[in-house]
């Protein structure tokens, strides 16, 4: 890996090392003629807990590794402010996420194409999913076998998880073995972005070998404050690193991969956005691009919680010293057991009503009950069944609060802003309640703790959702792709009206896809790198 020197110039500068940025930097550096700089605001991924799938709770609890954003008061959620956390370390959120490998439905990408994202249909993106992947079950027409990203089956299956799958099937959700083909509706054990039981973040897959290249420099603990333009061309990234201001220039392109909450902030601090808002904050307008920060989408997460007599929960395991020791030995010796499982070993994708083009909810089985985002386990053996609606109609926004990069942004997801979003949430809450009451789970003595309502009317369930729902940490769409007046990037991911500047992260999504965003953002990084290479002079 090359050393970074202040005031040096590079061919390509990638800002953000998460699911997309690490991929772009690694792929561009495959050409030894390219000098590439990857900038990350957080530290290197040296914590031993990062590699342990269940260790995400320890990492989330460390503010050094997290952007701890919060939303403003959400009007539909009792005016509560919600955590909107993101990873701030090498690998970004791929180093702290739940690792579930879900690509979404073919319908999602065909819809992107209909919305103006030419070249992003399912037929167009499938080759990039395959290119990224090494599938533990073997390569086929849907899966890759030689990519940097390892995908494998969950390494902790228990009678309680089996019973949850049986209960879901009895509630009308078909069993499924592979969530990443054309038909994704069903319930079963998920696959994860792990390799032999260890987390496969983009830092530990794409960057592990790439960082040995002399033409790739990686700079951590460096916050990009703004981009400087010269005659409509993005030329320089200005940085703040350990109290020092630095400038580094790009000979070819700058690629922003700061995520759906970070990328709009960087653009706006650079004078690229809605002119009226920028002037109000005293920021000179460099380029009128009113769609920046708008179209924000987020998945709303709602749970039901149960006490259980089962010993196959993390609460029961952590309360028993011998069970703790056994779990540690299983992971240390064979990379299996609860420490290898992540937060949701099983779950499903389902339709809440007939006639939908694809499943509209993702539901998850969590073999534990926690508070404070995984830092405090409940004392009694417990489990949760949660869900999030996959394709919300509601749209929010994210904008800077000042020109100072140290000031938190204003984040407004605007949950439950349409009648259809409310109806989907109510139907989903009833479906997971039906699963929880199934005879298949009865041998484990489930007793509902939340919401535990005497009568599940629409009014009572909606009040519970408003008081208890959280964000799923799946923000997207705030610099969306398209060709209309509010599109921020074109289908080549070039920022409209500015040369030498692209965006590659979840912010470019025109509509929310069906599942977690990890695999999808990695695909975006692969496709972006290919488009950059194709545009180079031959």
Describe what this molecule looks like in 3D:
With 538 residues, this protein is of the alpha+beta class. The chain has a domain at 1-75 and 83-103 and 198-290 and 476-538: 3-Layer(bba) Sandwich (FAD/NAD(P)-binding domain), CATH 3.50.50.60. The strands form eight sheets. Strands 1, 2, 11, 12, 13, 14 and 28 form a seven-stranded mixed sheet that branches. A hairpin with a 2-residue loop joins strand 13 (233-241) and strand 14. The relative contact order is 0.19. The model has no long low-confidence stretch (mean pLDDT 96).
Summarize the structure.
With 538 residues, the chain is of the alpha+beta class.
Kindly state the percentage of residues in helix.
10-25%
The CATH class of the domain at 1-75 and 83-103 and 198-290 and 476-538 turns out to be: Alpha Beta
List the uncertain runs.
none
Span of the ends, CA to CA = 26 Å
Average of per-residue pLDDT values:
96
SS class: alpha+beta
Number of helices: 13
Indicate the overall shape.
globular
Strand segment count: 28
Let me know the CATH homologous superfamily of the domain at 1-75 and 83-103 and 198-290 and 476-538: FAD/NAD(P)-binding domain
| Major sheet characteristics | 7 strands, mixed
Describe the secondary structure blueprint for this structure.
Blueprint: E1 9-15, H1 21-28, E2 36-39, H2 56-60, E3 66-67, E4 86-87, H3 106-114, H4 122-132, E5 133-135, E6 149-153, H5 159-170, E7 186-189, E8 191-192, E9 194-195, E10 198-199, H6 206-210, E11 216-219, E12 223-230, E13 233-241, E14 244-256, H7 259-269, E15 272-273, H8 275-280, E16 287-288, E17 294-296, E18 300-307, H9 314-318, H10 321-334, E19 346-350, E20 361-366, E21 370-371, E22 376-377, E23 382-389, E24 396-399, E25 410-412, H11 419-436, E26 447-450, H12 458-468, E27 470-471, E28 501-503, H13 518-535
Parallel strand pairs: 1-2, 1-14, 2-11, 5-6, 14-28, 15-16
Antiparallel strand pairs: 3-4, 6-8, 7-19, 9-10, 12-13, 13-14, 17-24, 18-23, 18-26, 18-27, 19-20, 20-23, 21-22, 24-25
Helix pairs in contact: 1-13, 4-13, 5-11, 11-12
């Amino acid at each position: 890996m090359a050393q970074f020197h202040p005031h040096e110039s590079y061919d390509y500068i990638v800002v953000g090392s998460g699911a997309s940025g690490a991929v772009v930097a690694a792929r561009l550096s495959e050409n030894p003629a390219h000098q590439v700089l990857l900038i990350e605001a957080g530290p290197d991924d040296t914590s031993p807990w990062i590699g342990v799938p269940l260790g995400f709770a320890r990492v989330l609890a460390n503010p050094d590794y997290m952007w701890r954003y919060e939303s403003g008061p959400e009007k539909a959620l009792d005016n509560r402010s919600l955590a909107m956390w993101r990873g701030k370390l090498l690998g970004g959120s791929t180093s702290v996420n739940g690792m579930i490998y879900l690509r979404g439905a073919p319908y999602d990408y065909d819809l992107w194409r209909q919305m103006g994202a030419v070249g992003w249909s399912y037929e167009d993106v499938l080759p990039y999913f395959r290119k990224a992947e090494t599938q533990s079950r073997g390569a086929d027409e849907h899966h890759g076998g030689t990519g940097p990203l390892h995908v494998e089956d969950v390494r902790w299956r228990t009678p309680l998880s089996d019973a949850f799958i049986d209960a879901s099937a009895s509630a009308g959700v078909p069993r499924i073995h592979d969530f990443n083909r054309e038909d994704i509706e069903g319930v079963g054990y998920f696959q994860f972005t792990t390799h032999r039981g260890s987390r496969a973040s983009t830092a530990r897959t794409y960057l592990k070998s790439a960082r040995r290249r002399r033409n790739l420099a990686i700079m951590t603990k460096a916050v990009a404050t703004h981009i400087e333009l010269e005659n409509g061309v993005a030329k320089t990234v200005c940085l703040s690193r350990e109290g020092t201001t630095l400038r580094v220039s790009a000979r070819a392109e700058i690629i922003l991969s700061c995520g759906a909450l970070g990328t709009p902030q960087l653009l706006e601090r650079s004078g690229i956005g809605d002119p009226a808002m920028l002037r109000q904050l005293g920021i000179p307008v460099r380029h009128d691009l009113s769609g920046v920060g708008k179209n924000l989408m987020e998945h709303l997460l709602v749970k039901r919680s149960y006490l259980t007599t089962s010993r196959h929960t993390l609460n029961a395991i952590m309360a028993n010293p011998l069970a703790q020791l056994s779990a540690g030995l299983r992971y240390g010796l064979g990379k299996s057991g609860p420490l290898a499982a992540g937060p949701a070993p099983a779950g499903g994708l389902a339709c809440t009503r007939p006639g939908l083009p694809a499943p509209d909810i993702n539901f998850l089985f969590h073999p534990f009950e926690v508070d404070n985002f995984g830092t405090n386990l409940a004392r009694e053996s417990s489990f949760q069944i949660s869900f999030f609606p996959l394709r919300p109609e509601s749209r929010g926004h994210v904008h800077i609060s000042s020109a100072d990069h140290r000031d938190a942004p204003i984040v407004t997801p605007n949950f439950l802003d349409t009648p259809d979003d409310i109806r989907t949430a109510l139907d989903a809450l009833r479906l997971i309640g039906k699963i929880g009451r199934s005879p298949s789970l009865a041998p484990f003595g489930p007793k509902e703790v939340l919401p535990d309502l005497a009568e599940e009317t629409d009014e009572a369930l909606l009040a519970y959702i408003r008081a208890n729902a959280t964000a799923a940490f799946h923000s997207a769409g705030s610099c969306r792709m398209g060709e209309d007046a509010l599109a921020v990037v074109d289908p080549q991911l070039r920022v409209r009206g500015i040369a030498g500047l692209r965006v590659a992260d979840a912010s470019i999504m025109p509509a929310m896809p069906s599942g977690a965003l990890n695999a999808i953002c990695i695909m975006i990084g692969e496709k972006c790198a290919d488009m950059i290479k194709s545009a180079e002079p031959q």
